[in-house]
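In keeping with the milestone schedule agreed at the kick-off meeting, the structural modelling team has produced records for the first pair of proteins. Each record is given below as a sequence line and a structure-token line. The laboratory manager (R.T.) confirmed that both were archived under the project's standard naming scheme.
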Amino acid sequence: MRTRRAVLFLAFAAAIFCFHDVSPARSEAPAIVRKLNAYVACINRLSERAYQSRERYFSWVGKKGPTGKERIIYGTYTIYETDDCERGVKEVAELEPRDPELEAAGAAYVTAVVALAPLLKEADDYYKQQDYQDDGMARGRTLHPRLVSAWGAFADADQKLRKRLDALQEQRSVEQLAEIERTEGRKQAYHVQTVMLGAKRLVRIQTVAKPDVPAVAAALAEYESIVRAAEEYAASDKTSRIGTDLLVSAKQLLVTSKQLMRRQRDKTPYSKGDQLLLNAGGGAMVEGSPGRLTRDYNELIQSFNRMVR
């Protein structure tokens, strides 16, 4: 069960955050976007690697830690550029608009990731240099509880920061959508915004440990309607910049979401081969998995970023 929960958690953690306006005409980002991007940059640069390091470590280490008798010893991964994250968060912490919950979560994230980085480097050097052959895994056993504690603190801080960012992004997206509809009507910017907002909501409710299948099915139906409307608009307006790239990514997310929903609804187990991939952090390669859904969501965001640039 520990491995399964970790896979689901990692699937959500891997999702890329982005904050900016959807209309190409809006060249200047509002102050709130500039502030949020500092926190987003930390997550996008550091979080996935931090979780991958944990997955790699526990792919060969048992619950009680390394013994020196393991058949395969992989070590772990390291993370870099925590200084950029720390500097960026400090620079925006005092900027308006103030948000004490966000600022506290950002400070806690920095504290956790800055503490994790040197510990991962120490462990990586130890295992890469095979120093366990000289001390009978003594330092490996000492490092184990420190690693577990540091990963736990990081995961807690990461999720609290994500939760606050997610709430702020949701609030901003809804407000922005209403403003776009009021000033421009249901044209390009409106359809792009609804696609991105619908996709995020879908991924959020489908990658939790215990998805609410009826709620997922309802979100899926709404998202499918949104994608169809965007596709119809793009076909009707030859000046639209809603290109094939964005629509292909949006529809691929729809396909994967349906596959995952059916698996969740029917309680379809993963095959042994799929389980091996999931446990090794290769969920993106497994059809109808949270990891594949996250990968498709990230690709949709990348298509969106290319379009607005």
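The second protein of the pair:
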Amino acid sequence: MVEEFNLLVCGVGGQGVLTLSRIIALSALKSNFKVRVGETLGMSQRGGIVNSFVRFGKNVLSPLFEKGMADAVIALDYVEAARSLQYASKRTVFLVDSNTIPPLSTILGLESLPDLDHVKRFFKENAVKAYFFNAFSIASSLSLPTSNTVMLGVFGRLFQKIFDRNVLISALREIVPAKYVEKNIEAFQLGWRLMDDNVAF
């Protein structure tokens, strides 16, 4: 039994952050963990920053966790992955979609947008383990608008000692609208296989 697991799912509006976090939270409930979920939202429209904290384990009380306390971060946007480094410690694993939707701050000219290579170097310099995937291209090949269930497969593969694969699929079936379920299960399976050949930084 996992004592405590702290997961941050991050991205921007329109990338399916909340759907992904709710699938994982339901999977944790189905696995007999206590679960707490906390969400911090920017503008709800496309481009607003979205963070979802999912905590589960034997005795989890608060829905949020402090900086430096994440066990894993799933970033559906590489810019938000870099922004979330404050939650990392030496044990944290980052699973990052190597795509981005420019956040509102960059559209307004308040911040510059770092390129992917810069973000990869940033992780390496900070000695944080990070896997990068072109998950959005896989989702697009299935005519899906977001990569969230591809990244669910990646997460499930890496943490299969915690979550049974069939439990994750069962939770996906409950959360995703019925007409999109089969394509999302296919995306999950493709994400699961992505981990086979990927090497962390």
